[in-house]
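Box 3.1. Reading complex inputs
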Amino acid sequence: MYLYSLTLQRAGGIVCATNGNFVGGKTQEIVVARGKNLDLLRPDESGKLQTLLSVDVFGAIRSLAQFRLTGSQKDYLVVGSDSGRLVILEYSREHNMFHKVHQETFGKSGCRRIVPGQFLAVDPKGRAVMVAACEKQKLVYVLNRDAAARLTISSPLEAHKSHTITYSVVGVDCGFDNPIFASIELDYSESDLDPTGQAAADAQKHLTFYELDLGLNHVSRKWSEPVDNGANLLVTVPGGGDGPSGVLVCAENFVIYKNQGHPDVRAVIPRHTDLPAERGVLVVSAATHRQKSMFFFLLQTEYGDIFKVTLEHEGDRVTELKIKYFDTIPVTTSMCVLKTGFLFAASEFGNHALYQFQAIGEAEDIEASSATLMETDEGFQPVFFQPRGLKNLVRIDLVESLMPIMDMKILNLFEEETPQVFTLCGRGPRSSLRILRPGLAINEMAVSQLPGTPSAVWTVKKNINDEFDAYIVVSFVNATLVLSIGETIEEVSDSGFLDTTPSLSVSLLGDESLMQVHPNGIRHIREDGRINEWKTPGKKTIVKVGSNRLQVVIALSGGELIYFEMDLTGQLMEVEKHEMPGDVACLDIAPVPEGRQRSRFLAVGSYDNTIRILSLDPDDCMQILSVQSVSSPPESLLLLEVMASTGGEDGADHPASVFLNAGLQNGVLFRTVVDMVTGQLSDTRSRFLGLRAPKLFSATVRGRQAMLCLSSRPWLGYIHQGHFLLTPLSYEALEYAASFSSDQCAEGVVAVANEALRIFTVERLGETFNETVVPLRYTPRKFVLLPKRKHLIVIESDQGAFTAEEREAARKECLEAAGMGENGNANNGEQMENGDGDDEKEDALPDEQYGYPKAESDRWASCIRVLDPKTGNTTCLLELQDNEAAFSICTVNFHDKEYGTLLAVGTAKGLQFWPKRTVAAGFIHIYRFVEEGKSLELLHKTQVEGVPLALHQFQGRLLAGIGPVLRLYDLGKRRLLRKCENKLFPHTIVSINTYRDRIYVGDIQESFHYCKYRRDENQLYIFADDSVPRWLTAAHHIDFDTMAGADKFGNIYFVRLPQDLSDEIEEDPTGGKIKWEQGKLNGAPNKVEEIVQFHIGDVVTCLQKASLIPGGGECVIYGTVMGSVGALLPFISREDVDFFSHLEMHMRQEHPPLCGRDHMAFRSAYFPVKDVIDGDLCEQFPTLPPDLQRKIADELDRTPGEILKKLEDARNKII
Amino acid sequence: MACVPLFLQSAVDAKTRNTIFSAYTSEAEEINRKEDRDLAVVPPFVELQIFGFVLIRDRGQSSQSQRQQSPRMSTFGGDSWGREAHHRKRRVDDLMLSSSSGDAASSPSFKKLSSGKFVCLVCPHNPILDNPLMLSMHNKGSRHIAAESKARESELSKRDESKKRLALSADSTGLSNSGNSRQQIKNVMFPNKPLIQKTMKAISESQCKNVDNPNAANAGHCSNITTSSSIGDSNYTCTTDGISVPPRNITGTANKILADWNSELLERREKELKFTAAGWKRDCHGKWYRDENVEFDSDEEDPNMVLE
């Protein structure tokens, strides 16, 4: 089996982010690392974050930093990754890609203890960069420029110190003195040698300054001083004239200003009033804002509160450190303050947000200061505050992120053309069920009912220079309706259009006259109201029309074509006639190219399965230039011109070209390139869009011409980051559409379907999926489908949280004690996304934004939820009591028992992980569905001795994995009855799959075990297991002998029981063999073989075999912790395998990954890659320069076009 | 049994015909090749019966029409013969399949599911195949062929075994399937058998079970698949000690009684299995007792009572 791996949805989570001026000029961009992806984001004028570039680096990005050489206008990006190399990147606007400027190797690859890459620090003046490991090693590179102003990098200077752990590294701003780097270090050499543990208890963290002597080209430890043992983060304080220099040390509960030769200035971080006393406050992320005259820091704590930190200073002496409450937003991994007044918050989990500053915290608020710090016998006096609504920030955009995907199922619950992907995402109060549909999201702006069933719709401007459309014209079977677009849309009668006849086409002609084509003629409405009418000769009627601004071609019944052109006086003149062999099925003229008089090509589709290109040049007017035969009669044609552009919005170049698109009656979209000179057709591609013949319409997307295809669902063909994408829209089937532009909606679409007129815009271009979000209460763990009722049952549980009742009680108490609105403006209208949707609507501080109040770590809150996915309504929500938390779920039908389908939920009571994993008790709850599956009723609950982490139905009974025991339960009157068990599993059972009488058990750290249940002996036998100890995170049954699994190191693998072994086991008639055969070293007698192995580079949490397109082959779909969704498609022909493996090989050679990790080494990070071809690498082929593309294509004996087509085909097989 | 005239007037050239024929199963191919060799001597009309197919070929005419129509376009567009030939090959495979399914000579090697898919009954893991083409491809695979030969072997050995036992059972009294008169004959025939009566009985009992439901033993995953070899419709020639016994014809009523008796047995076995699965065990006297590691409901049925 060979597989093609393709990422469908890129990771959403952000590991680290930095902002700077990467493009050059005045704009500010943000670079984010999403695991193995590097993205360049920029807020546009409307405040929406746009992704300029997203590139897969095939390595784990661990740290990012940005620097600028003095006097330069552009920033460079430094990337610390697992490649054992330091990479400096420069963004190239012309090619819209990152260029590797320098790549310096310093160590082995992989995330290791002592190989640098975890921390990066840059000298604020851009003279040096330090790259540090978690332990021991620190390297300093000197950055400079050569005579040609190119960036140069020195060989590394060592600043190692053995037996030290590094917590944080920053560059100290000391103007143009020698560069200094500060780090928080802990020396463990004594602790290692002291067996009593006394030294370990006394270990002290130090703040150390390393000075790079540029003259001597040498790094020395300049200064080291003990710091608070809770110190975890350093922040650079501006210096060199702008400020006092030095660093802020963020420690547990404190922020301390430190500098060499300067006394400590310490202030306490204010705490929540309801925070348990034993919990500290840690700063998790920091951002600095600098202007010429002032600077301040924003520090966010682990509870989401942002504090503004300011320093009062006179010269180099800091007199006071103030910490003022700023606002509360979800906890971030990093924050970026842009000079343009935006704050980008990269959330730890869930959606990221872009905020705009309303104020910079000048207003009165709770403040802790070093001046008022009081020390008592019990320590420093804390300062308390209560979070409030947003005051200084306002959220203006959201960046969706599925991180972390906890569970996923691909089901077609809504009976749509393609299945939906149901994912459980997020954590704690920000968790949600997200329903992903392949396709672009739609924002429906208006739907209005029409008096009849419309057949067509057009929009038309009054003048070519108008920005917006003036009329919407709707054609019915026997009438035409004209609507004028203004503040509202209303019917008008003074437009000059003939309303007693259906229309065939309505468009703007020339600069400011209108044209209406109806079956009996052409009506030309001049700007002054004069009307010219052209009547069809004899009894012929017009059947088809093609027109652009200056040219009109009509097809009469019988197959006669008449060509009109607009002359200089604005008259429509008949130019030429042409008799076609039969009736015309469709025709189209390309838009008039800029600076030209006319378009050269007319495309005519006939019912004899041909498409002809006719010339419209005066020299060879109506001569056939080329003929293309197609598989079915064409229904609709569209000539799409891609304009030549260089360095556009996305920075890429596009040569001009004309594409002929044809919607065929068999539902296929046929696409071919038209030669601009000869009109010859080449490079044909076809794609099945749906059961209805696609109708093609021109639209505008981001100022470029795009194509709408209306088949059994609508599709949009547009150009994104230099590639043409054809993506379905998540909308109902439409009849006819036209582009629409008004002051409310610049780039919309107006469409008719059934009896309604719909106006919508397309959102989030470039995405594969669009999502519908249903908020949940706690971290979702697993979910199952109740197949008959199509309800989803979700189990959610959170550690260290209060249950809903406790929270409610605490809140009431708090409000009563404080008096309503004591902490100011509790209801200031800052309604963010509401929390649970049911009971917290009127709450001004939604938990989703502010988080749940924190409880002790051994407290659990958990619930079971029955959800109707169609409406998103929760029909039943059971909160578990007594510190119980749900961990596993399955539906089960016990044989010949009266209840029908029951729900089994495995729970644990009082589960603790630290200092030792302990559990008070485990339970299996059995619930009955009542009220047509809308609600649950507890039947009984059975205590078990461990946590049931896996449950599964098996032959009318329930299989449960409880710790290392696999047990078969039958339903009893009062409890579950233990019928059979096998205790021979190595650690903990985390997954159970069954097929016929085979049971596939996944162990948490020893991969799969294949078992068999023998009814005649009532015994469970393990007959095969894996020889590799895998830490299993996800499992899925593929076929009788094959299982797919994923381990926690980011690998996906398939194991298969060899055929002869399988036969032997199935044909063992006496059953003696399975019973008496023994393996070696407590293993099973037989071993499964690994047939597929691939390193994803991200922890896969769920696997499923499914097909995302109707009639498509099945592939394995996976979801990961970082929120990416990918697919593994099995190849069906050897030829394809050869082609793609060769392409992959060439790509590896010609296009090595950006962060310096070898591609092959990355994909084989833990086990050698086996039989999987990396589609993500292959899909980087179009980003190569053309000559390189040609070179690779030559070596594969193909053209670049063919390779692109192959890549497109492979993707279209999956989605 | 479908009779499909394949090429009444063959308009294909010799090369294409060969391609088409190569789609046949190996046996058909062999016959075909043999037939090709014979072409020189056989008269113009050749009628062949392959698995119920009647292939009529007209050699003389085919070469004539070939000459007339050779530059004809394919009906599938283009001038490539490949597609048409491919299509016919599929069609032939299809037809071959349906004919072999109706073939009563051997048990069917596959079953058509209600979903329209096919399940191969020969291979031990019973792969499900989407369409006849895939099935035919699968049938040509080495695994399938290996499984087939294995199955055939086991079938043969089973038949041998049952023959042996039938011959033995002919000697037994009481539960024997045969009529009274035949019993007497047998008693006369084998007066000094080395087996005691009880053993004879046991043998015949087990033999009946075995022959009637050869799959009962591994009822685990293929319980719903039954092979259709029962004594009722096959005539055995029992040979023991060199004396040939004429084939027995079992009457309908006897057959029915046998079937009833068998189903009863099956039911009982199923019940027993249910009790073992529920955690009951049997002691050496055949008494049922509860496994101490298994939990039971308070009102659970006692097999000692139920199975009395």
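In summary: Residues 344 and 354 of chain A are 5 Å apart (CA to CA).
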